[in-house]
Amino acid sequence: MFRKILLATLITAFACTTAFAASVDGKWKATFDTQMGTQNYTYEFHVDGNKVTGTATNDHGHAQITEGKIDGETITFVEPLSFNGNDIRIEYTGKIDGDQIKFTRKVGEFATEKLVAKRSQ
Question: What does pTM read for this prediction?
Fold first, then answer.
């Protein structure tokens, strides 16, 4: 009996996690102010289990998302940036809340910024 209850609990937990993770699939848009001026971004996320891939596109180009993970309501990833011949890691940590994600992004050693991305229809 205990095994059946444990198995049912694990299956339910896995199904809920997978369904929730899949809810970030698709396009998200954000506009926010930085030291470099206003940034307009479109993020396109693809979720496979707890792995996140996709692209981050702004007015200056796009980058492949790397090191992407999702854990419950938390999404993390890196946007690699090449700026004036320098490679810079932009590290994102976000809290998913329905059709928005509240991000904190660390731009190398230069800045930490807050932004909100909203699901694009």
Answer: 0.80
